[in-house]
Amino acid sequence: MTTSDIQIVPGKVAGLTEAIVKLHMDYYRPASGFGAAFERVVGDGLSEFLPHLGNPINQILSLQNDKGILGSIAIDGEDLGAGTAHLRWFIVGEFARGGGWGQRLLETALRFCDQKDFSEVHLWTFEGLDAARALYEKFGFSLVEQQEGDQWGTVVTEQKFVKKPSN
Question: In the chain, fewer beta carbons within 10 Å around the N or the C end?
């Protein structure tokens, strides 16, 4: 098995919610100490979002190979109001990290946003995720807001990034 076996697959697939929650927990539990509250927020959010994939302004992409789901990214075109896309559940598992797969997922998601003519793309992340921040800034996102938050079960500095259209 090599990283060349990986593909980006659009849409809902069997086991997607469980895999995305696990990928988030595998990364954020040791990195940030997130526990059950974080797991619940990720799982509940995905469970609410996935039934809306029938709306053409929503999309979810997963990184997959013959061993399963290795990463994900979603565009929620509904929850922030007309014309604003919400980039959510962006994660790349350990096996696929360092191979440019995060960049490819983000490129694919942003191409979807351009095709749907969103006026802005918003995302929330946490302070200290330097590689992710560098990737967001490389793709034109700017930090517009910071605040302390504890919705994840521990206090972190949440950061809001916004990208204006590229066309």
Answer: C
pLDDT of residue 3: 55
**Picking from 22-26, 29-33, 49-53, 88-92, which range would have the lowest pLDDT averaged per residue?**
29-33
> What is the DSSP code string of the chain?
--GGG-EEEES--TTHHHHHHHHHHHHHHHHH---HHHHHHHHHHHHHHGGGGGSTT-EEEEEEETTEEEEEEEEESSTT-TTEEEEEEEEE-GGGTTTTHHHHHHHHHHHHHHHTT-SEEEEEEETT-HHHHHHHHHTT-EEEEEEEE-TTSS-EEEEEEEE----
Helical pair 101-115 and 130-138, crossing angle rounded to 10 deg: 40
pTM, to two decimals: 0.92
